[in-house]
Amino acid sequence: MVDAAxxxxxxxxxxxxxxxxxxxxxxxxxxxxxxxxxxxxxxxxHMAAELEFADAERLVTQTVAxxxxxxxxxxxxxxxxxxxxxxRIVGCAVIGALRQTPGLAAILASHPRIHAAxxxxxxxxLADAARALRTQLIEISDRTIASDAARALRLSxxxxxxxxxxxxxxxxxxxxxxxxxxxxxxxLVLARSREPARxxxxxxx
Length: 205
Prior knowledge:
- The protein has 205 residues and is an alpha/beta fold.
- It has a single domain, classed as Ribonuclease H-like superfamily/Ribonuclease H (Nucleotidyltransferase, domain 5).
- The chain contains seven helices and five strands.
- The chain has a five-stranded mixed sheet, sandwiched between helices.
- Helix 6 crosses helix 7.
- The chain is elongated, with a radius of gyration of 19 Å.
- It starts with a strand and ends in a 12-residue tail after the last helix.
């Protein structure tokens, strides 16, 4: 069975998905993963800010649950398709801004926080979906993905860029920033999955 890894670069309502596998890794799949649930607002927190707090809380709770369900189904479908093709998904990486999302009242009181929460919604639900599916998860900052991947692969930054360019050349277009970053994330997952397990140190009695 071939080891494979999923890299995800989320956006509002969708994510770029790239699956890499094999040795050396090649692009097995790339697609646009739709994360829109029927009837959900385009800008959830902007809409919630116009409501009374109780109504806003209800809207956010229902919408987050709906988006999470869509993310679980979409990610589960992708994983099962690769398993059916004889591939073992060793993990999933979700790229995004790593920060603590404040409570709803704090979000709705600040326009910058409202914008941040819109992006965090889909990153967070994809991470939750991976956990729900018991898939090894790496959450990685979009600011450090290149350096983290280069370090894990023991490559210089230019060598990593060359590797990503080769993957894109073999796969063909589209191979834009989203696909490049998702591919870096998948390479990072594969590299970490191949690291030898650290021996457990028994505590002294």
